[in-house]
Amino acid sequence: MLVRPKAVAFDIIGTVFSMEPMRPALVAMGLPPLALDFLYTAGLRDMFALAATGTFAPFQSVLSGCLDEVLAMHGLSASPEDRNAVLGMMKALPPHEDAKAAFEVLADSGIRVFAVSNGAAATTRGLLAAAGMEGLVERVLSVEDVKLSKPRAEVYCHATRAAVLAPGDMAMIATHPWDLHGARMAGLMTGYVARGVPYSPALEPPDLTGETLLEVASAMARLAPSQPDA
Predict the structure, then answer these.
(1) Between helices 213-222 and 99-108, what is the axis angle to 10°?
(2) Could you tell me the pLDDT band of residue 228, with boundaries at 50, 70 and 90?
(3) How far is CA 96 from CA 37, 76, 79, 165, in A?
(4) Residue 187 burial (C-beta neighbours within 10 Å; 0-12, 13-18, 19+)
(5) How far apart are CA 46 and CA 65, in angstroms?
(6) Mean pLDDT for the chain?
(7) The whole model's pTM is what?
(8) Calpha distance 26→66 (Å, rounded)
(9) How many helices (H) and strands (E) does the chain have?
(10) Please, which residues bridge with residue 13 across strands?
């Protein structure tokens, strides 16, 4: 039986903040609309390769190499200024429309809120501050703290240590099944923000599923709290 988590860690890029503004910017460079999806998944591919071999590079530098890759695949090139402008958009992504409400539902229920990102902590803080959500987050955590990217267990364990909680007392909310698979394997509760995308049956299933951030956060807030030890 599921019980209310004492803290929730949110994935940031894609889950809380949308990359969609980058799509027209890539199209303006001559790339097809799906280039954004390839760019992001290629970046994850290389981050996963680094994590699997126990090595690390900042996500921004990984994404820069992947942008060169996608441009070359389409026989294109771009000036350093244009490349930097597109990659710089990662620091000014808009929140999904229900993101702040999702954070507030948890905070109002006494559930602590953390941010855990494959990106830099400074970037995450900037995104949260621009969205007026910084005050709802107890702590911003980055894979740069442990020099390994998600879905390595070390990242989720870093989050539980930062919260001073057992893994089972913390939940992870994300729109990426691979992220939730990693969290589940590390012992965390998980909530999947589906947005119309099915969850792969090959991965560890989420504990809760909803179409939106607010649905998943509300479902966690409605869970009964754990009973104190007698």
Answers:
(1) 10
(2) low
(3) 17, 31, 31, 28
(4) middle
(5) 9
(6) 96
(7) 0.95
(8) 13
(9) 9, 6
(10) 17
